[in-house]
Amino acid sequence: MSQALELFLGILTAFGGSVEIGQLAFSVNAGSSFRYDLLWVVALGTVGIIVYCEMAGRIAAVRKQPVFHLIRERAGLTAGLVTLLAANIVNVMTCAAEIGGVALVWQLMQGWPYRGLVALTFVALVLVMWFFSFKWIERVFGLMGLLLVVFVAVAAVTGPDWGALWRGFVPGPPRAPAPGATSMLYAYDAVALLSAIMMPYETYFYASGAIEDGWKPKDLGLNRIIVVIGSVLGSLLSVALVMIGAQVHRAHGIDAQLPGTAALAVADAFGRWGLLAALLGMIFAFAGAAIETTYSGAYNVAQFFGWSWGKFRRPREAGRFHAAWFALLALSAVVIVTGIDPVSMVEYSIVFAVVTLPFTFFPVLVVARDKRLMGVHAIGPVANALGWLFLVLTTVAALAAVPLLILTHGGRG
């Protein structure tokens, strides 16, 4: 693969990884409840995921070590097992929410029974993951996910208050809360939005993908470009969704909890074809996120226990890895087909994901800054300072997440 094509596909992968049901739901909800006041969280989370994905990709290129190898090596067997269990519980919850999101959007388009669509989604994902190469999964879901740029166009044409929008990037208390939107809810939405942008599976998947693609130290520049451009593009979409929540959902009293309602603004602005683009974009974005979380869970297990792993390896060469991803995907489908509300599932997955972030990031930071291990490729003082800053911030968010979930009744006030 040429470096230009690898760069292009890598940016699409990073973009698709940033756009999933949690980020969509919490971005629109943040705009509906607090207008532009939480845009600073989007900017903060974008810098954080850039810092840690760049570190993980750097370690993968230089040391050929994925994240869960580092976690076991640095945390030990017992603490590592706890982290593995917590991470994969979050992965299953996230994947279940993504499968449910695909089924909900598909139901809006066809009107078929929800549980039947969950089953069809599961079968479709299995077939894609079994028969498609890693390269083609990136291409298909990355390109189709680009349909979501229609939300950026809608945000620009629905009357944004540009002055208030720019002020939203400055941290501070809520300036324009909706009726009933308390300061406690503001804190909860800030933690949830930060978690949605910095989901731990993105770091696992990105580092493992770099190893599968055979990155070397010469690819560190490519790593930096992919992470920065892909993450910024994904966050641009998140900004657009916050704007839609503020300008459309709040103005018209539309319930921002349901993912399909985000497409209503597109239908109003661009008609039937705009609506179709938005719904198809959501289906492919959610399905792509389901694939990434499933592979991330299988990577975690295989890397922790030292199994042979990789999408490029045939089932007879990495049987336990392939069995792991199938089992995780099947478990996710079973969880969501029981009738659990996908919106509630995504709320819990986002909150519990932030709890695992410090355990994910700490070993990555320790190795990336270690000159004995990384040599001349160890991170510099700026990346080191940012790494510690975001480790502290995510630790504070992790400690606050569950109490805020309880105090706000799951973000409902």
Outline the structure in words.
- There is one protein chain.
- The protein is mostly helical and 413 residues long.
- It has one domain: Up-down Bundle (Amino acid/polyamine transporter I), CATH 1.20.1740.10.
- Helix content is 78%, strand content 0%.
- The chain has helices at 3-18, 21-34, 39-63, 67-75, 77-110, 114-131, 134-145, 150-157, 162-167, 183-197, 200-212, 220-252, 262-305, 319-337, 342-368, 371-374, 381-407.
- It starts with a helix and ends in a 6-residue tail after the last helix.
- The relative contact order is 0.21.
Question: Quick gist of this model?
Answer:
The chain is mainly alpha-helical and 413 residues long.
What would the keywords be for this entry?
413 residues, mainly alpha, 17 helices
Number of helices: 17
Kindly provide the radius of gyration, computed on alpha-carbon positions and rounded to a whole number of angstroms.
Answer: 20 Å
Low-pLDDT sequence parts: none
Order of helices and strands: HHHHHHHHHHHHHHHHH
CATH architectural name: Up-down Bundle
Number of beta strands: 0
Helix content: over 70%
CATH topology: Amino acid/polyamine transporter I
First-last Cα distance: 51 Å
Strand content: under 5%
Based on secondary structure, the structural category is mainly alpha
Overall pLDDT confidence: 89
Query: What's the CATH class label?
Result: Mainly Alpha
The geometry reads as: globular
Q: Which sheet architecture does the biggest sheet show? A: none
- Counting structural domains, the number is 1
> CATH superfamily name?
Amino acid/polyamine transporter I
